[in-house]
Input
Amino acid sequence: MLYLKSELHYLLVVTTAGQALILANLKDAIGKCRELDGIQPHRSFWVSRSAIVRFKKLGREGVLVLHDHTEIPVSRSKVKAVQLFLEQAPLSSLSP
Output
């Protein structure tokens, strides 16, 4: 799984094999994905660590750039948590 995106009452599930829109909420989906290594950088997104290429700081907020060039917003309140999360990754898995 690359990432999850909340869209009203639906959830966009994006994987390397494609994407699907399902009737579900983000909170429940995150609960079912506990064994996966990822983070919720914004109230509407969950991202797998393996999908992240880099973190760009934009003012007080930020953006996670994924392998497929998708940009996921990082809210102001989550910037520090995202930075700590990424520091735990092996350096070889993230590009500068």
